[in-house]
User: Fold these one by one.
Assistant:
Number 1:
Amino acid sequence: MGFVESIGARHRQACQPRNLSIVPDSPGECYLTWEAAPYRGETVIGSVLEKGGRLEIRIISIVDDDASQRTATARLLRSMGFAAYAFASAREFLLSPRLSDTACLIADVEMPGMSGVKLQEQLIAQGNTTPMIFITAFPEDRIREQAMRAGAIGFLAKPFDETQLLECVERALTRSRKGQDDS
């Protein structure tokens, strides 16, 4: 049974697919996604830009040691039309091929090994200017100020509001696009 068949009849009637997109997943695989409802009247699939007849897929990476949070965040972003990749640790992300093509990075603050703030420091030291959004179950003003001073787009306390996260993602992708236009 496909996705459309698996959702309830009432939801299916309310959500007519629009803006179909093919989104890459793992190497050699992709999935079809669409915008089911407008987000604040805008097309959320703004992460897929049409330039010169080809589609550019904007990648969002999620780094969180909590598997349920990581999966839920990736599913939310994919449901909104973004290409989302999830990583269980900062090390896993740093060693991945997604490091160089990530347009927005969402990272947990407290993780075993390397924290989200240490990940931010390392990326900056390497000259990587990927916009970051922090999520945390333990919001501390000192850490929030440090992350924001270093250029973070947002610092959200778990559980966070989906709308807040999506607004931060929009701002991050706008900053990422501007950075690419400047180069």
Note: The helical segments are 3-6, 9-14, 67-79, 90-94, 116-125, 141-149, 162-182.
Number 2:
Amino acid sequence: MSKINIRRLEKTGEKRRKKSTLNKYAPGKNKTNSFTRRSKKTIFKLTMSTMASMGILILQIALVCVVGYVVVHFYGQRLSNTGEAMTPVLDNGEVVLVDRLIYNAISPRRGHIVAFRPHGNEYANIAIRRVVAISGDTIQIIEGRIVVNDEEVVIPSLNEDDIEYAGLANYPITLRVNEFFVIGDNHQNSVDSRMPDVGVVRRSDLYGRIWFSIGENRRFVR
């Protein structure tokens, strides 16, 4: 090949390289590729942000569901009072709410209105009565009055009339650990710890504490 032809080829290659370099840095030439990369980054950021928002929303919904379940299951259990043992505080058929968690934290106290299953019988109706003596107390009904630890106990909600039937409490009863003595406010028409059918109530027999009435006269129950 002659020197002239070689020189021509070198000049042609040099022109092509210059043209390629100019095209590379020429404004507007790579806008499409740059825009595509920026779009992908923006879409990725939006997707991650959306996923994070959805995750937070799902957690919030799950938390609300859990709280709702706990409130309804442990504080909103409905129970219908049967009989007239608790009048006038609770009427026959009055619907109340039961706190089922409280006695996992504390023991029943004198004056609490509790729901329980007599002798823990799962097939027995849940009864509602008032606690008049707690673990460690010695209770006896003397001349129609409740005597606890040798002192007369007056519970304002109890019928003021003398208790005519002492039953098991005709003699001193010392309550062991986790045992409680209950009586209906309307003691003249109540089947309670005075009778063998009920006897002392064990903590394991408790269904919960009555705390609110949702009958016609909605109110806290004391």
Note: DSSP finds three helices and twelve strands in the chain.
